[in-house]
Amino acid sequence: MVQQVISMIVLPVIALVIAVFFLGLSRKITARIHRRHGPPLYQPLIDVVKLLTQKENISHGTIFDLGIVLSVAGGLATILFIPAGGLHPLSSSGDFLVVLYLMLLSPLGLALAAGASENPNASIGVSRKFILALGYEVPFLLAALAVMVHFRTTSLVEIVSLQRESLLNWSVFTLPLPALATFLVLPAMLSIRPFDFAGAPQEVASGPLVELGGKYLAFAAIQGALHTYIVLAIFVDLYLGGGANILTFFLKMLAVFFIGVCINGVMPRFRVKQALIYLWKWPAIIAFAGLVIVMWTSR
Amino acid sequence: MDRADIAKTLKSPANWGQKYSLWAVYFCTGCGVIEIPPVITSRWDAERFGVLPMATPRQGNLFLITGYVSLKTMGAIIRTYDQMPDPKYVVGFGSCPVNGGMYWDSYNTIKHLDKYLPVDGWIAGCMPRPEAIFVAVVHLWQMIDKGMATGYQKYKENYEYYERNQREILPHLPKFSGERTEVVGQTL
């Protein structure tokens, strides 16, 4: 019980540290890909400190305030359900389904805040974000269903523990097609290039974030970082066997994230239509084929 | 980070944040903005100074007035400046915002920008090199350290003066709406 309470406090802190570190690392790696020197690794920390200590914070009403709070709280609540290394404070029998629902909470909060700001760019950004979610949810859920059918459980902790015995038990080897499909939609789930049209600065003036400044933007940045952590953690838990401790878990996340940043560094941006066509074509077909094979073999 | 910086940082984290995270507003007023793309991309890489271009005034705290300021852009500049959250810094870039530059006798170019907005610093030259922006940024750091970059406070304290000057040239601005005077006959 005490251990559970401690891990409930420790896990969000660890997640926040990892998420902010990833944010700094992505800027550094992108800079090196561009042959630049890049900012220091702790630059996101400077940015968040600046935004939190800004003297003026412009609000657009109660929904605007509460939407941001909801998005950060949704991110933190999701983290408590995802096993990270040995830490799994709130795991129970159906926690994968809970995670799938809770993951929608933080985009919803941001959408509420963006709607309350009454800026047309924010509305366009939100609608693009939901179209993107519509695109990646189909292959992601098909692949997740394949994993659940294969392991005959909806508990993330059990999925992780069933993969732990040897390297060949990792789902990336036992379920190659769902793993590939999820990897193909990973940039869309992380909203990085080529799927960053929802918050494109050049087209819609950073989309849902357009009216956010000061501490609101700081919380939105924290929420974005937590979202990156959540997506990577789910991928590592489902397909790469989780982690025996927090360090191996972190290293696996780092490997996936590094590939993602490299894709982000060299790709241009899709249009909304192109993204939807891509997401509903190859990843969806591969995920569906994987699901059919799993259904067939586990009969 | 310099070891000398650590004590300063612990004394005032807010100053540390303001200094090393200057987010510039993406607003092109004149030809000077042609120097900005090389500054923020691979060749000169402003990101190592913490300077990033931001797409909206809500997110920015550094306002570069790049190039000459016509009456029409002055209205947009004032609106943008009013939307930025405090603390905010304005830097005039190029010789045109300083004194009109080559448009010194033009009928609709602003010759004295600091009559309408509080300007924290100037970069002279036509055009200034991209390095001049970094000189200006480092100079702005020193001013923030010494508490001299207080243009946004001066704007609030002397708002009547600035508002009178703004209203004189731009009576049709939305923030003066309802008080339309007959100073300017045609719409700008």
Helix content class of chain A:
over 70%
Flag low-confidence runs of chain B: 181-188
CATH architecture name of chain B:
3-Layer(aba) Sandwich
What series of H and E elements makes up the topology of chain A? HHHHHHHHHHHHH
The total domain count of chain A is 1
Q: How many β-strands of chain B, per DSSP?
A: 5
Helix and strand content put the structural class of chain A at: mainly alpha
Distance between the termini of chain A: 39 Å
Radius of gyration of chain B (Å)? 17 Å
Tally of helical segments of chain B: 8
The overall pLDDT of chain B, averaged over residues, is 85
Output mean pLDDT of chain A: 89
Indicate the proportion of strand residues of chain B.
5-15%
Seen as an oligomer or otherwise, the chain set is: heterodimer
Shape of chain B: globular
Tell me what you see in this structure.
The complex is a heterodimer of chains A (299) and B (188). Chain A has 13 helices and no strands. With 299 residues, chain A is an all-alpha fold. Chain A has one domain. Chain A is globular and about 60 Å long. Chain A starts with a helix and ends with a helix. Chain A is 73% helix and 0% strand. The longest helix of chain B has 17 residues, at 130-146. A 3-stranded parallel sheet of chain B has the order 3-4-5. Chain B is of the alpha/beta class. In chain B, α1 (3-11) crosses α2 (13-20) and α2 (13-20) packs antiparallel against α6 (130-146). Chain B starts with a helix and ends in a 19-residue tail after the last helix. Mean pLDDT of chain B is 85; it is low at 181-188. Chain B has 8 helices and 5 strands. In chain B, β4, α5 and β5 (121-123) form a beta-alpha-beta unit. Chain B has one domain: Rossmann fold, CATH 3.40.50.12280. The A-B interface holds A 27, 31, 34-40, 43, 46-47, 49-58, 121, 201-202, 205-206, 209-214, 217 and B 1, 13-14, 16-18, 20-21, 26, 41-42, 45, 47-48, 50, 53-56, 58-59, 61, 84-87.
